[in-house]
Sequence to fold (266 residues):
Amino acid sequence: MNQPLAFIHPDAKIAHNVVVEPFAVINKDVEIGEGTWIGSHAIIMEGARIGKNCRIFPGAVISAVPQDLKFKGEDTKTIIGDNTTIRECVTVNRGTVDKYRTEIGSNCLIMAYTHIAHDCIVGNHVILANCVQLAGHITVGDYANIGGMSAVQQFVKIGKHTYIGGCSQIRKDVPPYIKAAREPLSYAGINSVGLRRRGHSDEKIAEIQDIYRYIYLKGLNNSDAISQVELEFQASPERDEILNFISNSERGIIKSPAKKGSESDY
Fold:
């Protein structure tokens, strides 16, 4: 149902049961999947590819040109998966020549006033709380949860199943399965609550915790910690995910907790 007070460019490809509320604007070279709702005053700009059953709330601006002085008008995209909710006044910029796309996965919740800059790749089931700010070229893994008012520096990678406390300044890579908090941002234990909610067994969570004891709590450098983990733990998807993430980190990972305590604290 398209309201007469909305503007929809004749070249836009809109599924038959998309709802577009009054005063929304949909430009050319836009595709929107079945069952999606576009709220009043939302603006969907060129290059947007929005999946099925999404909800785009009033004031959101999707696929605006990048805030990057190197951008020269190249043909790039913003891709949003199915069942994703974009709340009020969220801004998502399309890609540059780096990746030619900015991408948000399926089943995500992007809360009000969040900004996702050019060439970010956000996985599935991600929650970005109110006012999270992602600079360009950031990767966020599946099921990551970033607390409100957090700012992420460009090129940072955030692993799967992470939980990052609100108001964090994220300057280094955050490995998978952990909680991160404090200033400067530091390891704060395993995201055991989130992992249990997603079906990980107590044994698997204990294994992940033991791996991170070598990485963060035994005073080893990263190379030695990786070597020890490879010796002490059999290969598993979780072990390999952790080791590959750390080995491939270009910015370096967040540090051990500044506050000294026993391993049992984590």
In short: Residues 261-266 have pLDDT under 50 and may be disordered. The helical segments are 192-197, 202-217, 222-232, 237-247. The chain has two domains: 7-140, 195-248. The CA atoms of residues 27 and 92 lie 15 Å apart.
